[in-house]
Amino acid sequence: MNADRPVGVFDSGLGGLTVLAELTRALPGEDFLYLGDTARLPYGSKSPRIVERYAREVADYLIQKDIKMLVIACNTATAHAEQTLAQELKIPVVGVIQPGVDALLARTRNRRVGVLGTRSTIKSGAYANRIQAQDRELQVYSKECPLFVPLVEEGWTDRRVTRLVIQEYLSELKREDVDTVVLGCTHYPLLKETIQSEFPELRLVDSSEETAKAVRAKLESEALLADRPRGAVRIYLTDMTHQ
Ligand code: DGL
What we know:
5-stranded parallel β-sheet; 4-stranded parallel β-sheet
């Protein structure tokens, strides 16, 4: 195994750059190859079968570029394709869901937790199932937030409409006395400050930070850490939109 090969990272679009940013911070010596499947975004409203097919195609492309590890920097793709890719590929695969679940379980105090995600992620039950597999007594409240991705894509991370939508989605969790919420979508960390100012007492778990820690641990345990002071980042997109 050659540790100098790049780490492959993919997302349905540019949202996964929140994960890439944490990865480059945690692993400055690594080369990263990021693929954003902008041509087929969003994954979050699509069926499990289609998301799995897209994820396989993107992974195949990155494998041809000789990556040493695959990071699925998309919650929806992790929900529907992590298991399949981990079984099929000969390199380590890390998704964003388990690191977020681990942090959520470590941070809750009253054991009433929330999960925010795309429709497809929430319907998959990927978060709720993993949380309850680790702790059956924990109360989990899941909430689809389909308007968050378009608001972030528009750059409206702190508008009046955004605050209204946040209130609409999260007040139900608040009524259930949830104390900790995982931001289960690549775009949601960009709303973190606005969510926090609407609900100051909520603990917010950003799975991108936790994923970077998990990737580092995996590279270490597989003796795959690159031995260089600074790596390079290459970004590929499957489509460029007109601005
Ligand atoms: N990357 C997706 C996720 O984390 C959000 C954007 C999309 O719907 O494709 O679930």
